[in-house]
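To assess whether ligand presence alters the predicted conformation, the chain was also submitted together with pyridoxal-5'-phosphate. Input:
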Amino acid sequence: MAVTEGAGGVAREAAVPAVLGGSPAFPEGLPLTRVRVPDRDELARRFDAILDSGQLTDGGTVRALEEAAAAMLDVPHVVAVSSCTSGLMLALQALGVAGRRVVMPSFTFSATAHAAHWAGGEPVFAEIAPDTLTLDPAAATAAAGPGTGALMATHVYGTPCDVEGLRAVADARGVPLLYDAAHAFGSRRGGVPVGGFGAAEVFSLSPTKVVVAAEGGLVATRDAALAERIRLGRGYGNPGDYDCLFPGLNARMSELHAALALVSLRTLPQRVAHRGALAAAFAARIAGLPGVRLPALAKGDTSTWKDLTLIVDPTAFGCDVPRLAEALRAEGIDSRRYFHPAVHTQKAYARTGEPVRLPVTEEMAERVLTVPLWSHMDEPTILRVADAVARIQEHATKL
Ligand SMILES: *Cc1c(COP(=O)(O)O)cnc(C)c1O
């Protein structure tokens, strides 16, 4: 059956999904993410200047990036590092988690837990709130028993955590709070930029994130001593005289990566605003569709919408996530199960000790499906994705 194209290329409801023989919404295919570096000319100029200078790592461009990021995040200290993972490792090492428990969500990217492991800590997984998919303060309280060295929370998909609730838990337990802010450069909690909450917040600049340096990370903190320690830690722990103060890493950022990040940062506010508008258009289009919702954003909060993730109730929707993903693939629409499997059920963590049961996390991991969204996508495209989801839902029980 032919799909009728309405104004703006929007397929009409009556059509049959491609998986049942209809024409695909995107015959040319729609990838999950598309990276675009905004200003190539400026980037080329910056690369030339760096190559001419002969200083290829940890120089003036890295410092300029740190200053620009600190100004945007409204924090006094930003330390650029080679990745979010290395930034988390160094921050956790500095917070002294070695030999202690690090309470964190399991509904996150594996690197959150890996960083705690590499810092000598023991990841202890706690439940998320089912509406926002971020760490539940009550569950964190229950998990943060004796021997806890830190709390760690992830602003999942760019949705700000319940920072007030988590701060209360950390204060009551007398432990530091660290944020995995990999998705959240540009997110705001009640108007306040994510970046200044907790002891430190760590951003990722890898290609699937919203600010891109090819590879890289940024540690933001209000604590001058912590910033200094991470600065030392990214260069082996060497204060300059090769008499290392502690076992550090090579976690430096190169000047070339910093140049990319600086160019990427310049247009971030417009990109975040555009992603928010696309997410809102998508949400409006799927409103009322049974069995599918987006993560809840508190009133007054801003998300980067690093990922546009559907939460699917298979009973109400009519089919489960793997079937939906297959039907989307037939439409030409790429999708990914972020974050499935939950970290505590991955081979790296499942084999140790008593099996951990996290019913909310396990159920949500079964229910999530991330669909394409990128910063230069246009609105007709995101509406075509929404219409494809609606078409699939209408026929879901026949899949
Ligand atoms: C991507 C990601 C990381 C790792 O970032 P890198 O810069 O690749 O080290 C950590 N945590 C979360 C939640 C992520 O999505």
